[in-house]
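Posting this for the archive.
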Amino acid sequence: MIHKIIGLVIFTAIVVFGLSVYLSPNDLEKCDAPGDGDCRMADAIIVVSGGDTNARTDEAIKLYKTDWAPLIIVSGAAADKSGPSNAKAMYQRAVNSGVPKSAIVMEESSETTKQNATEVKKIIDSRKIKDVILVTSGYHMRRAKLEFSSQFQDVKIRSHPVVYDKSWSPWWWLTPWGWWLALGELMRIGLFALGLSR
């Protein structure tokens, strides 16, 4: 009996660790500041709304203020159609935090991750941007990078997830909501692989 319990604990730990690493790739993990190679400056920071939009925006602002890129692209339509778009709210939050208006570009029409990628690509192409840092929540990072990579054929994309937000943290596996998010993302990644993402 004790061997079964130990085996179950070990199996659960492997699953949790594997999901955490898989869902939340972080290409800047070993970078203390902009430098060379994978730690070089980017042309832009892309941040998509959804989940804890404020935490995502704050992470993009932090990257901007530590000279990771000279431009922030905020992307997302309004969750509540009677109010401003998520992108507009993100824009205002960045401006209130000291980011110059000229350093922010808004994309206000996308309602899904796939649409985020499609619409932001128009901005990327028009500005001839070749290197971006993509910011979103940890649970959403893998799928977001897949969607953006499918659109951005000639653009280097580096992922940088928010480690802590209202919906996700390293302790996500202790809550039913954390499992709901993780398994939901795995399902959506599967749909993406089948060409069925929206």
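The two ends are 46 Å apart (CA to CA). Residues 63 and 69 are 7 Å apart (CA to CA).
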